[in-house]
User: What shape does this take?
Amino acid sequence: MEAALFPDDFDGIISSAPVVNSGFAARFIQTPQAQFPDAISLANLDAVLKAGDFDIIRDAVLMKCDVADEDGDGIPETVAGDGFLNDPRFCEFDIEDLDGVLTETQQEVFKTILASLKVGNGENEIFTNGFEVLRLTSDATSWFGPLSPGTPSLHFAFGTEIYKFFIKDDPNLKLHDIILNFDDISKIFPFIAPNDLDSFVERGGKLIIFHGWEDADISPRDTIDFYETVTEKMSDEERDDHIRLFMVPGMGHLEGIFIQTPPRGADFLTALEN
Ligand SMILES: [Ca+2]
Ligand SMILES: [Ca+2]
Assistant: This one.
């Protein structure tokens, strides 16, 4: 957003899990609405996903997909049994494999978290991809909950406050009274268009983007879509000279900012300098 709107501010930017569209705010309403029949008292949690359930899903996913040849092309690209996936997109995990272990409602919550979300008004549409995180759940409980009565999840905390004070100007707004619609969601951020980074690139700007595959806050696939969109018209050389994207297996939201050692982080400042 900074590189697009204020291209003269910085010569180089390291961006972790960038917010590239307003869809993230819709997710912050959608997932707690699915998870919490009563977000204030945290009553009636029997049917929804809890920490132990995320552990069950993670273990089932690892059992199925933490193999040496994740993409099935015959060439090993990662270590089997090391506790994370190189690229979760290759994991064909079906939550219905856990029939009898998770309730149907729990399975529906899981599918909601993984599914993409569209909020449109017939003419325009905000699209956001689902999360990969439940396949590896390092910070799933913080973002999806349940945490504590009144603040059941970080999605709830961010989402309801954004709605109350940035969109609706109504401090008494309740989670389940919110109906997602385009006009509300589009108030949060401007759209990023394919040529929005041109000014930044033309003046020699350098942008390193990284995103943890286990991010449960901002969809990792949205960052891939963004990178592909803004670099589509560039030559490979121009792209690599100015904009690099690193998807980090096993890393949760912003972990690479606070942790600078693999597998949960890296020294991106030195990389930018070089
Ligand atoms: Ca392979
Ligand atoms: Ca692995």
Summary: The chain has a mean pLDDT of 90.
